[in-house]
Amino acid sequence: MKRLPVLPTLLVALAVAAMIALGIWQLDRRQEKLALLARYAANQHLPAIALPRFPDESVLFRQASAMCLQPVAWHSEAGRAADGSSGWRLIADCRTGAEGPGFSVQLGIASTLTARPAWKGGVVRGYITHAPQHQALIQGAWSRGPQPLMLVADTPLPGLKPNAPANMGDIPNNHFAYAVQWFIFAGIAAIIYAIALRRRLWAQAAGRTPD
Predict the structure, then answer these.
(1) Same domain, yes or no: 82 and 157
(2) Residues 79 and 154 occupy one common structural domain
């Protein structure tokens, strides 16, 4: 009598169901991302605001201003200037007061890694984007928490090239591709198991154990 292996069949069914669920989840994420991109496009035409004290995804690409009382740290990140040339984004971490969080501001693009600027702080104006994050790819893919914000200054420091303008193309929206991948994985797993199961049933019918 032909019998299906209960445990392997159950495990494969659960794995396929999980992959299909992940694909559906990615499609939901895609719709969320499309709505966010539409909001970001509208933000570029709204009046300027004060830079929020805490992360707020809804204000990305909006014009804002902030007061840097004193730069307390400097960072350099690879990037491009407004003219398309490659360079190093010069980023300062600013103190805003005795209490409360500070903020980061990108002050221009250097052609080469340079010494720490003599800038002592002041009012900066520009558009809001995400501060650079250095985390593992998998961690970033699963993270749903708000990312720290950064102000990209409209006017660079003397000797630096202007920052590139806001570009929503920098925000990845690969959720549809991820969904297709999960659906393909589910289909491949089901096909492979179906082939293995067919071999097993044939072997049982022939009265022998499959290789």
Answers:
(1) yes
(2) yes
Residues 98 and 160 in one domain: yes
For the whole prediction, is pTM greater than 0.70? Answer: no
Percent of the chain whose pLDDT exceeds 70: 88
Strands of the 122-130 sheet, one edge to the other: 49-50, 63-68, 122-130, 149-153, 103-110, 86-95, 70-80
What is the rounded (10 degree) CA torsion for 91, 97, 102, 104?
A: -20
- Mean per-residue pLDDT of the chain: 85
CA angle 98, 127, 83 (to 5 degrees): 125
Do 60 and 161 share a domain, yes or no?
yes
